[in-house]
Amino acid sequence: MATKFVESLTLLIITTSMFTVSMANKNWSFGFNNNYTDWWSTWGSHHQNKTHQEPRKIIVGGSEHWHFGYNYTNWAFKTAPFYLNDTLVFKYDAPNATSFPHSVYLFPNFWSFLNCDVKKAKKLADPTQGAGEGFNFVLNKWQPYYFACGERNGFHCNNGQMKFAVMPMLRPFWPFP
């Protein structure tokens, strides 16, 4: 009697778990991602939806743009995933009497990024390049990218949260050809 109860309980737990997982992944398509809008028609007449995402133009910071005091690490986390060939657009005001100048630096490794060591970084955009349409940077390599504002010898990076890292991923293409 006890073994029958244990078997029934185990079966119930497995069934419940499978149901829960299937409901959590209800849009999962087993890698085929076919367009079944005509599911009632005969077999083999389905047309595949061969659309895929094009590279995106992503404005760094969204509507906040590139400025002192905004948490860009948090922004990057919320905006992810980033894909190869996506373009990051850095928009910031040109230097004037009421704003601090900003720039864009690319750090070679995590430690120089973490310490905001501007001496080891490469300057990508100076304070005038972010005005208007902004400065564009294409994520064209599969590697981590470490960005920061290098103005005031790294002060904006250290104290103003003007730094973030991204790791572009390969863009998925479903269905397989």
From TrEMBL:
Coiled coil: none annotated. Residues 1-24 form the signal peptide. Keywords: Signal. Residues 56-170 form the Phytocyanin domain. GO terms for molecular function: electron transfer activity. InterPro entries: Cupredoxin, Phytocyanin_dom. It holds the Pfam family Cu_bind_like. It comes from the Eukaryota. SUPFAM superfamilies: Cupredoxins (SSF49503). This is Phytocyanin domain-containing protein. It comes from Canavalia gladiata.
